[in-house]
Amino acid sequence: MLYLDNNATTPIDPEALEAMTRVAGRAWGNPGSRHLAGRRARQALEDARESIAEILNASPLEVVFTSGGTESNNFAITGLTRAGLSGLSTEESRTGTILLPPGEHPATEEPVRRLVSLGWKRQDLKLDETGRIQSDIESIPLDDVLLATALLAHNETGVIQDLRPLIQRCAEQGIPFHIDAVQAVGKIDVDFRALGATTMSIGAHKFHGPRGIGALLIRQGCEFPALLLGGHQEAGRRAGTEPVMLAVGMSTALRNWHAQKAERIEKVRRLRDRLEAGLIQSCPPVFVNGDRAHRLPNTTNLSFPGVEGDPLLIALDIAGVCCSLGSACASGSLMPSPILVAMGLPAERYSSALRLSVSHLNTEEEIDSAIQIISRTVTRLRA
């Protein structure tokens, strides 16, 4: 099996798994309990929180553990708009406009669709043909905007946005800004303080951590209602017994990436470029979708005109290559990729697009094998 779908999920870091096993045996208590077993669990949990905060340049008080990126995005969008929360006054439950690029991850698109059903308006930022925000920041009307959000790095194309000018303008108008950094963290440097966002979501399984845990970073001083009610865990923002073992696995995986980031970034960029070049040469025409200068080092989105995406994906699966057409959360959708459509690509480009994403665990031999299999499959399907 050749695994080239690391933007969907990644194999767990063996050291993270070992750390989780160790914590499960030693710090298995409830971190809310006021005895030795509870204190051990609490210490492990807070050590993990501090480690994650340090790497992302945040305060530990700003890190709220969640079940993953989807919950974090929902948590942020619901909390920052106060939409659908019981016990709020009419003033707190007001409607307005949410500003975002088209083609965001379903974990953002669906909560926004829900906002629209509750009376909110959606205002789309314009993208150029490379997937970068092209709107003149100073000319964007913000009169009715109550929330802005955007992916830092797109899950399908890998395109990285420079969000700081937009965040700064929103801040000047008192508009909160949520960043979906799920695909970015653990692949490139992400500095929460420097970005200036109100909230930011991350997910452990995108950087070789365990599935089932992520975090929402909430800037200190931001008033934020709880999404889950019950106990007082996570500073009263998310009730429920904290997943200590998963938090330790998450922090271990992120710490290992941080310690090896220069080597990992260089390796995945080299592997991605080798894959791209090999496919462009062996089965033309092949088009790279997205800004090639501003994208994740591990991600390529390629179009193979003359081939439909679904048959290609199935044929590659049979041949032993794991990849995707786009977001795993949108798997099964019959609609074309929203981000590729928003970029203005012709139908033959977005209907034949394939996402390939590598990790530092891949080898050059695997890449060369993938080139042979993919090019052979594309050629056969085109015949």
Overview of the molecule:
This protein is an alpha/beta fold and 383 residues long. The chain is built from 11 helices and 12 strands. The protein has helices at 14-26, 36-55, 69-81, 106-117, 164-172, 192-195, 244-282, 309-319, 338-342, 347-350, 364-382, and strands at residues 2-3, 63-66, 97-100, 121-124, 145-151, 177-180, 199-203, 214-218, 287-288, 299-303, 321-322, 353-357. The chain has a 7-stranded mixed sheet, with helices on both faces. The protein has a 3-stranded antiparallel sheet with strand order 9-10-12. Helix 5 (164-172) links the parallel strand 5 (145-151) and strand 6 (177-180). The longest helix is centred in the C-terminal third of the chain and has 39 residues, at 244-282. The relative contact order is 0.17. Mean pLDDT is 94; it is low at 84-91.
Quick summary of this structure?
The chain has 383 residues and is an alpha/beta fold. Helices cover 39% and strands 13% of the residues. The longest helix has 39 residues, at 244-282.
Strand % is: 5-15%
In spatial order, strands of the major sheet run 2-8-7-6-5-3-4
Strand tally: 12
User: Using only CA atoms, what is the Rg?
Assistant: 21 Å
Instruction: Give helix and strand order, one letter per element, not per position.
Output: EHHEHEHEEHEHEEHEEHEHHEH
Rounded to the nearest angstrom, the distance between the terminal CA atoms is 26 Å
- The whole-number mean of residue pLDDT values reads 94
Structural class computed from helices and strand pairing: alpha/beta
Which overall shape is indicated by the principal axes computed on the Cα atoms? globular
Stretches where pLDDT is under 50 for at least 5 consecutive residues are 84-91
Helical content (DSSP H or I, runs of 4+): 25-40%
Total count of helical runs of at least 4 residues: 11
Multimerization status:
single chain
Largest sheet: 7 strands, mixed
